[in-house]
């Protein structure tokens, strides 16, 4: 490294610090904005005073008399679930992109969402499952088995698990599993009616009971992801370099993959297979923060929370007096983003 390079790095350090401070402030403001919007808008718009009244009554554990405040209280669980689910999906996508060194990897494209959905469908059709615990267990099993299958298939042949092979294996697996989902549902009208609303993906069915089940699991997986961030930076340099830096490549990749699968499967169990959040958010965050996973992971979580909450709010506004599910809105937003990423990416390591 020359003296000029050292000087450039020292000069860029304050600029990077300022940019990250701006991102922290902007992210905090965005979370507060979408939170207020989610509480304010729906089939009935409410004022700021009604929001404060509803929140105050909720904290005190009483039911307000004003209908606007009542509407605010009813929107609190879905707002919290949208924030938590969006953060988990984006964090899962960031982990999968880091593990596979593939900028278009996410739980949907790699088939993890579909694997979880298939197991839930089989549980509904053949076992008659109804509880969140059962949904969660089947979703975790389906997501984990699908992730392992895609990685094994993508590792076959020369070069091992390259980004392009993993993407193709995930796409093929998703298509096959989607066909199996249809095959299970078509002859079973009752199961189809129960599944079709869940399949779209949304947070309208949020309850405190379901969140009490998944939030501890999500918190443990998120903690594991953040602890793995420095090692993921080393993995981005290649396995040989990572080993030379003292990183245990296999356990690190397994820990990050397990965290990503748990984050995705837990959300899928309660909100359905919501697509594109894990693809869009980490890609945009990487453009803003650079390649350091210690910044990509937390900012992806914040960005995912903002995106899914905004999508849920937008779906309620444009579908009023009904609603358009958040999964439809994120798919509508995500398809053009996927096209742009595919055009700008040469399928090389991040």
From TrEMBL:
Keyword terms of this UniProt record: Cell membrane, Membrane, Transmembrane, Transmembrane helix, Transport
Pfam families: FecCD
Annotated membrane topology: Multi-pass membrane protein
Main location group: membrane
Membrane-spanning parts: 21-41, 76-96, 108-129, 135-154, 166-190, 210-235, 255-281, 324-342
CDD domains for this protein: TM_ABC_iron-siderophores_like (cd06550)
Subcellular location per the Swiss-Prot or TrEMBL entry: Cell membrane
PANTHER family xref list: FE(3+) DICITRATE TRANSPORT SYSTEM PERMEASE PROTEIN FECC-RELATED, FERRIC ENTEROBACTIN TRANSPORT SYSTEM PERMEASE PROTEIN
Family under the similarity heading: Belongs to the binding-protein-dependent transport system permease family. FecCD subfamily.
Official protein name in the record: Iron ABC transporter permease
């Amino acid at each position: 490294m020359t003296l000029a390079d050292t000087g450039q790095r020292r000069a860029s350090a304050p600029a990077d610090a300022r940019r990250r401070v701006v991102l922290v402030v902007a992210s905090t403001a965005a979370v507060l904005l979408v939170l207020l919007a989610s509480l304010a808008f729906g089939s009935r718009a409410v004022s700021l005073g009604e929001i404060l009244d509803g929140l105050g009554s909720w904290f005190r554990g009483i039911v307000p008399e004003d209908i606007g405040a009542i509407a605010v209280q009813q929107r609190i669980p879905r707002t919290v679930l949208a924030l938590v689910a969006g953060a988990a999906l984006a964090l899962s996508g960031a982990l999968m992109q880091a593990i596979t060194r593939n900028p278009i990897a996410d739980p949907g494209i790699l088939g993890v969402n579909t694997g979880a959905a298939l197991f839930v469908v089989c549980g509904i059709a053949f076992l008659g499952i109804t509880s969140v615990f059962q949904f969660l267990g089947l979703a975790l099993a389906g997501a984990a088995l699908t992730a392992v299958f895609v990685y094994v298939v993508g590792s076959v042949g020369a070069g091992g698990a390259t980004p392009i092979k993993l993407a193709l294996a995930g796409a093929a697996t998703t298509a096959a599993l989607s066909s199996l989902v249809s095959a299970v549902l078509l002859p079973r009208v009752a199961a189809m009616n129960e599944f079709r609303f869940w399949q779209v993906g949304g947070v309208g069915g949020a309850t405190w009971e379901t969140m009490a089940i998944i939030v501890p699991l999500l918190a443990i997986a998120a903690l594991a992801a953040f602890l793995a961030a420095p090692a993921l930076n080393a993995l981005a340099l290649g396995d040989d370099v990572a080993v030379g830096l003292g990183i245990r490549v296999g356990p690190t990749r397994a820990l990050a993959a397990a965290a990503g699968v748990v984050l995705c499967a837990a959300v899928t169990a309660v909100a359905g297979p919501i697509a594109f959040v894990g693809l869009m958010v980490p890609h945009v965050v990487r453009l803003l923060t650079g390649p350091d996973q210690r910044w990509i992971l937390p900012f992806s979580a914040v960005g995912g929370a903002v995106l899914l909450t905004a999508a849920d709010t937008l779906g309620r506004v444009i579908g009023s007096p009904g609603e358009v599910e958040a999964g439809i809105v994120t798919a509508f937003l995500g398809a053009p983003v996927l096209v742009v990423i595919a055009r700008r990416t040469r399928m090389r390591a991040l």
